[in-house]
Amino acid sequence: MKIADLSAARLQIHLSSEDWWVVPGPTSVTELKPETTPIFLLPILELDHSAAKDALKDGFVDAGLSEDLLLRFPFEEVVTTGRNSFSEQWINLALGQSRELA
Questions:
Q1: Which of 31, 49, 79, 89 is at a distance of 20 to 30 A from 98, taking alpha carbons?
Q2: Euclidean distance between CA atoms 6 and 42, whole angstroms
């Protein structure tokens, strides 16, 4: 089920029937399961944190789902993945998001 189209970050966020976060790509679909590192969600760091949260929250409401699902979105894990990456771009964006999450 499509939740949000974050086109500025080139991401569409879906929720699977098993309640996994899902991002479809051009040739595959990636599910965020407990053992999966959320590297495929790093582009969300390119967005203002509050704008990303609002887009997800609006998507939940539009889909008739509880806004409480927002609490399960792995913002902190994405920031940590960005900070631990070897990319200066993701590190800098993650550091900026860290301030917004604090």
A1: 31
A2: 12
d(CA 42, CA 100): 16
40-91 pLDDT, tens digit each: 999 999 999 999 999 999 999 999 999 888 999 999 999 999 999 999 999 9
Question: Which pLDDT value is given to residue 101?
Answer: 74
Q: Which residue has the tokens 């792995």?
A: 74
**pTM, 2 dp:** 0.89
Structure tokens given for 15: 């929720």
Query: Sign of the C-alpha dihedral, residues 64, 68, 34, 84?
Result: positive
Domain extent at residue 64: 2-101
Total of domains in the chain = 1
What 3 state SS string does the chain have?
CEEEEEHHHCEEEEECCCCCEEEECCCCEEEECCCCCHHHHHHHHHCCHHHHHHHHHHHHHHCCCCHHHHHHCCHHHHHHHHHCCCCHHHHHHHHHHHHHHC
